[in-house]
Please model this.
Amino acid sequence: MDKILIHGGNQLKGEVKISGSKNSTLPILFASLLTDEAVTIKNVPSLADVDTTIGLLNFIGKLAVKKGSVVKILSKEKYKHIAPYDLIRKMRASILIMGPLLARLKKVDVSLPGGCTIGSRPIDIHLDAFKHLGVEISIDGGYVKTSAKNGLKGNTIHFNFPSVGATENVLLSAVLAEGKTTIINAATEPEIEDLANVLTKMGASITGAGTKEIVIHGVKKLKGFSHSVIPDRIEAATYMIAAAITKGQITLKNVTPKHLCAVSKNLKNCGMTINETKDTISIKWTKYLNPKNIKTDVYPGFPTDVQAQWMALMCLAKGNSKITETIFENRFMHVPELKRLGADITINEKEVLIKGVKKLSGAPVMVSDLRAGAALVLAGLAAEGQTIVSRIYHLDRGYDMLEKKLKKLGANIKRIKN
Ligand code: EPZ
Model:
């Protein structure tokens, strides 16, 4: 398995182009199942999760091909209604295959999803939503078997938690249901709006996307589409923190500043200088890094997907800070690895206390999940000496050319192929 070798201490300087959003690309790829017409998706990042999703679409009956950052999708044959275990288990977002296949085939069998190891990550909100749309569900032999003999019927669905994936699954099914569907307490992340914009281009009738109440009026048929995916706000936040942790100065291009308000605000509060234009963010170290407590929350609060990276930064702050994780119950697996680099962190259930230290020292560390891996790379960039990061296949799921982009910014970093 490949590793990343980092010699820390270089201040990162220069420009980085942010890739398209992984968490927007995946649901939009699944949306292609809702039509038999041609689909073109642009600004698609080169990621393992994108390849996994393309593989799944081609298994089901599409002809999806990625060339550079463009994916073109045609319909090849009649869809299968069973999603294979060996693909589904790789990626939690595979659960998004359910909505479109229920809408098109009125049945789908999927193995229980896999993906990151952050918490148990059940799918009860998804399944409860489908039941409200007239779907019958049974669990058999590790598969969730679902069917809607009389087709999907619109309904009002109250989410007890604004699940991103469940909101997307309802959008991907209710658009072809009979009648009106209302989601109460919907997720409001930008990726939801991007998906709704695509579905609207296809001929769907959706209002309220991006707010907590979304109304969908089902239609009979949906057209093909061409769409460019929004920039990846989590990748952007990671490079902003890379500038702060290495005392550097970076300009991010092809980014949407309004999607990063919580991260920018907290970085300014710590002492960074940040300037924004319509599609760039420039962040500069000034003279200190103050500690700043954060509590993760649903959008537009501080993103849980930036919690690990923030923790790496706070390890070198001038004082103590606290991080509270409210979205996932087990998203602190980067803590023992950061401690191997010399961090002073104590876990207390849902929160951690970080005592800022003068320096971190390079060491071999192991990645447990995508964003934990980002945190370890960031800490390695600032640590004295050599850091070897292993199990970087987790990073390849969600970061497009990470070590190439960091090297271009002046990091002493390289991938060792094993
Ligand atoms: C999406 O995951 C993102 N993934 C995650 O990003 C992100 O961390 C998460 O939203 C929260 O913002 C993609 O978009 C592909 P949720 P998702 O359903 O849809 C619980 C990354 O690093 N829950 O909002 O799975 C769940 O256990 C990834 O890019 C239920 O209890 O997130 C979790 O505690 C990691 N029952 C919380 O809700 C359900 O049926 C948030 O889950 C569904 C979720």
